[in-house]
Amino acid sequence: MKRGSSLLLLALGLTFTQCKNEAYQTQSTTDATAVATTTPAEKEYSYEMAPNDPLNARIYTLDNGLKVYLSDYEEAPRIQTFIAVRAGSKNDPTDATGLAHYLEHMVFKGTTELGTANWEKEKAELDKIEALYEQYRNTRNEAARKKIYHQIDSVSGVAATYAIANEYDKLLTAIGAKGTNAYTWVDQTVYTNDIPSNQLERWLELEADRFQEMVPRLFHTELEAVYEEKNRTLDSDGRKVAEVINTELFPSHQYGTQTTIGTVEHLKNPSITAIREYFDKYYVPNNMAIAMSGDIDFDQTIRLIDRYWGGIEKSQVPNFTVAQEQPIQKPIVREVFGPDAENVSVAFRTPGINEREALVVQMISNLLYNGQAGLVDLNLNQQQKVLQAYAYDTPMKDYGTFRMTGMPRQGQSLDQVRDLLLQQLELIKKGSFDESLIQAVVNNDKINTMKAYEDNSNRADAFVTAFIYDMPWEKFVSRQDEFASITKQEVVDVANKYFQNNYVLVYKRTGKDPNAQKVEKPAITPVAVNRDAQSDYYKAFMAKEVQPLEPVFVDYQKDITETKLKQNIPLLYTKNNDNGLFQLYYILDMGTNNDQKLGMAVNYLKYLGTDKYTAEELQKEFYKLGTSFDVFSSGDQVYVSLTGLDENFEQGLNLFESVLANAKPNQQALKDMVAGILKAREDAKKNKGVILQQAMVNYAKYGAKNPFNTLLSEKELKAVKPQELVNIIKSIPTYEHRVLYYGPRETEALVAVLNEGHKVPATLKPVPKEVVYPELDIKEPTVYWADYNMVQAEMLFLSKSVPYSKDIIPVVRLYNEYMGGIVFQDLRESKALAYSTYSYYGTASKKDRANYLMSYIGAQADKLSEAMSGMQALLTDMPLADANFENARASLRNSISTERITKAGVLFDYERAKKLGLNYDIRQDVYQSANSMTFDQLKEFQQKYVKGQPQVILVIGSKDRLNFDALKKYGKVKQLDLKTLFGY
Fold first, then answer.
1. pTM above 0.90, yes or no
2. What residue stretches are annotated with the Peptidase M16 N-terminal domain (predicted)?
3. Residue 696 lies in a domain
């Protein structure tokens, strides 16, 4: 989430490959003396390259130590950027945990020039606030503390009159940036932006400015947002389990002794002075990297980076002393309580990422669980011995972790699940697995890397991984070959070395948490956000001209080859010119709304074998081929898909078709599956996200009988026969359908292979009629609430609007762009009511369905009244902010001009368009209208489709904490019990 949710890293980029042959080299055309006396325009830059690097990356090091990683991948005229700092929560002072994460929030607040209307006057107030916080954190008397906080609140109100909230975000929005965000974790803090390539210089100058100084602007309202983020973690059973695991695995190292978001006590007693000291220590160029992948000119880009970043002075970075952990002598057993479904986790401490043994642990992780043919996949999930199980490794700089987690079936104890998990690990330790599985893991790892490197975000993230873990790029690239060299004996040796009775065992039980915490709400007076004010920096930035980029819209007739297969089956085809991967889809316009048993049959398929292969053998065969198949059903469609290496397309297709045509019924598999469905249904009733976002939303839209809760009853499930489901599976290719293909094949060759391999009858049947659930009109204001044991309360405001019409799409896009900033500014920046909040007008996915206005806010339960009135005020009287409006228009045009719908995305964009009755790229209308649209048009839309529209409000929270008097102000209050919502 924005402003630094403490997320685990994306897949750590350890397995990237598909290399090209290029000798390792250091390019240099000038000596160091010449570099020191020349300007960026005259310099020639040294850079490193690695042999067989699939990214063809260049790695530069500026004179001040800043690392720069560049890769040219011109999928679109955009650049994915990461600015990485090699410091995270492990570098927090022991008496100020959460500091790195909170600093990350502050870096978005602007500088002494950006975000201020009068820096001299603002600074005087900010200095007072800093001093007051130091006094506050050193005061123990509660009455005195309240008095000091009242002063902080008062002075903050004065300081805010000189501040311009969100000005950094406004600039990024205006230039068409996407994904403006950041994350903090144990070893790093990373700032992300996806920018148009023509905005590179403006972006580099802006970022160089903000990373040279930290201004604690709007500190106490942002601190409240961090409180809310902490409360969200306290409401997350998964986060609590992870925290317990780390605490026990690392009793000495900061990985376990402190958390990224910090303790409640430290959050309540922040130190701006300590945050500033941290910034000065670690946010220096020789401890930072700029990682970029996209539409890049290497020479121009490095000169621009040097121009704006090269003058920043380096500084000595404190050494980090790694605490040495003692061996765990026996299992450490802990319990975690919360409302979610129960599970059990077994976790081990493993070596740091730069050790070869860490790669072996990664191999073990894949041998156990890879989603297809690992021991956990086959022995536990496919055989339905548990409801669900998985395993994964998490490498970090100093140590790593390996974790196995399982969810029990009905009547199964957590100890039984634990034993099953450990049994799979014992098979690895004994070498009781087919050695060919290692090669299959390596091959699929290569395929996953190819897929990953089709995306600039993954490419740039690989650079971040190499930098944060102090890994030379040559070593990072060669890790794929090193991974492939791992032997079975090595796997067995490492498993026996690290996986003994030295684990942490955590039972996640369903129940009230006896150690529940909460960050209490401080008294905060809303501060001014000065929406229409603009700093001189802002004006100068916006006045800079850039070369505009022209949009490229999808032309469905030109960009998609459409032909016919036998029996007149439509084939829609887009060529893959990038690599040797393919995606094949059979799409039927029928789903669970046509036949409730269809979804059940689709799920059943993964547990079945054929006349030639058992279910386990099938998964192994697909995995060896580097292919995977899936069957997915929604309310109105079935997708049958096959993806993988095109060199094995024919073999994969034949195997895939044999599964559809020759699946063999299995009574025990069906019995186990039904039991699993019933247990999963009960677990869903313990998931607050499912309750609010699915069950309650469907109830509000369709009533008590709706697509979400129209299910086969327990009696009906148990009455279904295996052959009945197999017949449904076999019938899928017999209905009218179309085929989508994205891959490297030429059309004629593809048609020939599909006509030969795709087995269909002489005449295809029309799909059965869909059951359509009528959408309800909202007749009176109503508040529906569901009881859930949680610290926060979450609310959705839902209004039904008109059916889809392409004519309003341009103004809808502008409204969403505009209101997104307004809601964030008002409810978070000004009033500190929420960590997460949004409002958007959602258009229907089908032309005959209604659009809906949906607004969300998650806040402490004691802020319920303020949060609701704040959101309602914005929906009723949309504020006029000229700067926000101009930014919204500019953002629309800049985003669309640099968006490129490519690859398989072209096919699915066409699928979406057809559902809406469109035969062209609707973005054309938005782009052409963006510049001419006025605020009056936006206001007219808001008055007609938003203001005063009948709405229902959906609330989930603890009955003991909800303010029902506040709820009654918005309509008749009605509790929804879980049986009504779920239908069982």
1. yes
2. 75-113, 603-695
3. yes
